[in-house]
Every structure is written in C-alpha cells, then in structure tokens.
Amino acid sequence: MASLLKMNFSLDEVRFAMDRLGKHASIDELVNFIFAARMAKKYEKDANNPFPGDDNCNNEALFGIMDKTLRLLEMGFTENQISAVFERCGSEALLTDLAESIITGGAEPDAHKYSSPLSKQSVQLNCRSLKRKTTGDFLMNQQPLSSVLIKTEEYSSDVVPEPDLLERLKGKRPKEEHTDDEPNNWLKPKEEFMEDTSNSEGRMWLEARRGISSSTNNRVAASRRRVLGILEDRNPTMSMPNPCKSLTSVVAKPPYFFYGNVTSLSQDSWARISQFLYSSQPEFANTQLYSALSRKEGYIHNLPIEDRFHIHPKGPMTIEEAIPHSRKWWPSWDDRKQLSYISCETSGVPLLCDKLGRILADCNGLPSAEQRRQILQQCREKNLIWVGKYKLGRLEPEHLERIMGYPFQHSQVAGFGVPDRLGSLKHSFQTDTLGYHLSVMRRLVPGGVVILSFFSGIGGVEIALHRLGIVLKGVVSVETCEVKRKILKKWWESSGQSGELIQIEDINKLSSRRLEDLMKKFKGFDLVVCQNPYSAADSDNLSGLDFSMFAEFVRVVQRVRSTMDGDR
Fold first, then answer.
1. What is the mean pLDDT, run by run of 10 residues, along the chain of 568 residues?
2. CA-to-CA distance for 422 and 297, rounded, in angstroms?
3. Phi and psi (nearest 5°) for 117?
4. How many Cα atoms occupy the beta-carbon half-sphere of 71 within 13 Å?
5. What secondary structure letter does DSSP report for 256?
6. Cα gap 549→530, rounded to integer Å
7. What are the distances in angstroms from CA 252 to CA 144, 209, 474?
8. CB 177 within 8 A of CB 269
C-alpha cells in the first residue's frame, strides 16, 4: 500500500483496488485497476464516485468503461492512448472500435529498442517501461553475469516509447525486489555449436522471432488483424515476445527445450536462468486470458512462436463457468470473476464460513459496505465460494482441477489429503495456458513426441500435450515425490496412452550412461522440459527455486542437444 500511496494515489483508491483484487495482487494490477476506475469516473457522465461509500459502485455503465480500459491496457496500449481514444470515440464505443481507432490513428502499443549488453541503469528503465505489455508479456534485459558465447544481435523498431510515459514510470514505479540468497556459483553452459545460417527454416523462424516487418503499412495491418483476432477468439497473439537477443539458428532448431515456472521469481533470477539457456529471453503469460485463474506464468524456450492455437474445447473462463451450481447463490455485490490467488489452507475454514454465514443471516443478505469489504477479503484469501443461501464453503480440489485444466479427481490418490491436493495444483501449470505455448509441437512433430520431463509434478505438460491431440510416443519423467508419480501413472493408464512411460524417482539417478541408453531406446527426444525446480515444494513459499536442481536440467539439455547433433 505504501508504494501505491507514493504514486500519489488516494487512500480510498488504493483500498478500493485492494478490496476488489485482493492483497496478493501485483502492483501493476492494482495500478491498472485504479487507472481504469479513474477513466470510468472521467468518461461516464452519469456515474458517481466509484470508490467506497458510493451506493452506485456497481453501476453497469461505469464498470463497462473500467472493463474496456483494463482490456486495452492488457493489449499493451498506454494510458495516454486510451484516454485519447475515449475522447475521440466516446465511452459507449465498442472495444473493437476503440482498439482499431488507436491502431489506425497511428498510436500503437509501445515497442522498444534493445541492445546487448546493457548498462544496469538502462536495464531498469527498459524493464519499467515494459510494465504495460499485454498480460505481463515483457522481456527483460539484464547485464550478463558472465560472458556467454552466444551471438547477440540488436533489435530495433520504428515505433518509439512515449517519453512522458517513461518519465512517469521512472517516478512512480517502486524498485524491483531481488533475493540475495541465491547462489552465484552457477556453471556456465558451454557453446556447443557454431552458427549455421544455411537452414532456410531456421532463418525464417529467426526472422519471425525478431518481429521484423517489411513496412509500416504491413505492421499496422497486422496489428489490426491481431486485435480483431484477440477479441473474437481471445487469442493473445499480442503476447508474442520481442526478444532483445535473437537466438542463433542452431539454438532455434531441435531438440527443443522448455523451462517453465509459476513462482514469484525476481528479475535477477529470470536473467540468470536465461543466461544458462542460451540467452533465450523469458516469455510471460497471464492465465486469465485462457482460464478462470488470474496468475502470471513464465517460460524460457526455443520453440517457434508462430501458428500457435488454443486447446479445444476451451476450459471455463470464469468461476461461474467452472462451478455452475454456485450461480444460484452468488450475490450481486460479490464481483469476483476469476481466482486471483490459490490458498492451500483448510484449517479453520469451516468455522470462518459459519461466522460469515451468521453475519449474512442477521442482515438478511444485505451487509453494510464495511461488512461486504470484510467478507470479500476473506473470500479472496481463503478461496471461498457460495454453496447455499447466505452460506459459504471452501474451493474443493475438484473445482480447482477444472479451473487448472486437469481431469476430474486427477489429484485424488491414497495418502494425498485436501491440503496436499490443493498445494500440488497450486504449483502446477494451468494446462490451457501451457497448451497454447506448446501447441506448435503438433506441427513440428506430427507423428507424436518423445519428451524428457524434469520435476513432472502431477503431469501438467503431459496433459497439455494430450489435450492438444499430440500423441505421446514416450515420456521419461523425473519426479521425486512418490505420490505425484502415482498420480501421473494413474492418468497415463486411465487416459489410454499407447506410448511408454518411464518414471525416475531422482534426477541423480539419471546418469550419463542411462541418459544415453534412453536416447538410443527412443531415438532421441523431441522436447526436454523442466517444471518448477523449487525447494519446499509442499510449502506455500513460491520463491524457493532450487538452483542446484535447475543446473541438473541444464546439464541434461546440453548433453541431449550435443548427442543428437552428433548423430545427425
């Protein structure tokens, strides 16, 4: 709250945003929400003050403007652009018309010029200036921690950031926090290959990765189609990264690697991870564009980013769609549409629900503004849903499985209680989001894939590929938790997989000899994937990345790539 107050937001604005989004919301989400509320107040002539104490805070028109503003911010447009388009088109204009007006009027989402290496000062400025990127899909430029023999190239765009926005962000944004407890003795991966530009497919992939366009007119037309496609199909094409360091054509070719993390890592951690994966830049996605969960997930990979597609049928996009029986009891003043936080806490929840139920019964379901605030705060923090008249209950693992894109009772096995099930789902990928980013594998390997999966958990990658219609010819899964291995094996058998599943209980047991034997058995791997190698996996701490385990993943990726390259 202190950081927001320093940005000259009023106390009422900050409280309103935190009440609506929850205390776990990021600074960016809170800032965007406050700005959307201000825009609604400014451009809805008949609307009153949308902050606490206003009886008309649920005014449909007012929140319609807020929704449009937030959607435009997610697309990457700036506050100035959004304000100008409302002035130009009016608050009643359709979202498609507003977005198209910004683009065709010559005001497009910010693009930034990168170069490598960068000074620390310019890194901080560029990272801040990218905060408005759609769904948090921004790329970080960090001073290399050590020299890496990977070719880097300058990325440039003919669209430059607005100076006033950069100045505002410099003065308003709080400094990023970094953890100091991470080891610095990382082993730098060696350069395995020389650049090979003879492969035409690799060159085409690199050009797409750099985001180079032939002309301004083509860029505007592509942007226009992109926005219309987003609105029609919720296809977040605008989240494609603009890497500041282009991958060499050798790194861009198979076998492919994919590292993913759902934890709250610092920018410094992402920069280190990037350095050890051939300087590939992180790609961030907000799961709210794919599901009923609002959370940032980060990936580093060498997959193409063109011709991605969604998993079909799509999963639920709101809590109401995921838990339809709650619709009957959901009060109009509870405006939650998506989960913003996953709680594993179960102790004391029944007593809390009884207490809140008595409060609602005493006021005949019409709580005061302060009571609403307190009830909604508990609902967000404890993941409470409406199960009856004036009655709340906890979000069950089956509900969360549906929201996360896993089969019904997927996490239910002997020896796994409700807190364990919730915790395992919390630390897993949202499969609709992951599936979108892995969907290119169906085109790259049409006959089916063989994957080497590190820290497989409850099988997020495997399930995402299966939902995409990709045949799993073979999976070598490394997972230390016995119960999670049972969950993956149960799913493998129940889903009728025809390929072979090999489970290894400890990464230290994947010796070089055994790895070579597995590569001979499957004739190599199409994809090497790593999921959340963090310590204290069963705890609620999302920042405990285990770098030693990550180093093992890097070692294996290097061995697989060098071996398969030698066999070509």
1. 72 81 75 78 53 46 75 76 82 78 56 35 36 36 33 33 37 40 42 40 42 41 46 40 54 92 85 89 94 95 94 95 95 94 93 96 94 95 95 96 97 93 95 97 96 95 98 96 96 96 92 94 96 53 65 91 82
2. 18
3. -80, 165
4. 17
5. E
6. 10
7. 20, 10, 23
8. no
Q: What are the DSSP E strand ranges found in 214-341?
A: 256-261, 283-286, 296-301
- The token duo for 34 is 């406050």
Tell me if 76 sits within 8 A of 133, measured CB to CB.
yes
The position carrying tokens 């492969």 is 199
Helices (H) and strands (E) in the chain, counts: 22, 9
Nearest to 343 by CA among 418, 291, 417, 434: 418
Tens of pLDDT, residues 101-116? 776 664 433 333 333 3
DSSP classification of residue 114: B
Alpha carbons 139 and 270: distance in angstroms, whole number: 10
First-to-last alpha carbon distance for the chain, in angstroms, is 57
> Reduced to 3 states, what is the DSSP secondary structure of residue 233?
helix
DSSP state of 567: H
Compute the 3-state secondary structure of the chain and give helix, strand, coil in percent, each to the nearest 5. Answer: 45, 10, 45
Backbone angle region of 119, left / alpha / beta, with phi > 0 → left and psi within -120 to 50 → alpha:
beta
Question: Residue 24 is encoded by which pair of tokens?
Answer: 């776990």
Helix or strand or coil: residue 516?
A: helix
Any residues with CB less than 8 A from the CB of 45 and at least 6 apart, and which? none
Annotate 233-263 with b (16+ C-beta within 10 A) or e (fewer).
eebbbbbbbbbbbbbbbbbbbbbbbbbbbbb
Strand segments, DSSP code E, in 108-263 are 256-261
Residues 514, 556: Cα–Cα separation, whole Å: 11
| Tokens standing for residue 472 | 């799993």
Residue identified by tokens 């620390």 is 120
Rounded Cα distance, 135 and 99, in Å: 16
DSSP, residue by residue, 141-169: ----SS--------B--S----HHHHHHH
Q: Residues, the chain, total? A: 568
255-265 per-position pLDDT tens digit: 999 999 988 78
3 state SS of 115: coil
CA 94 from centre of chain:
27
| Range 346-367 burial, b when 16+ CB lie within 10 A, else e | eeebeeebeebbeebeeeeeeb
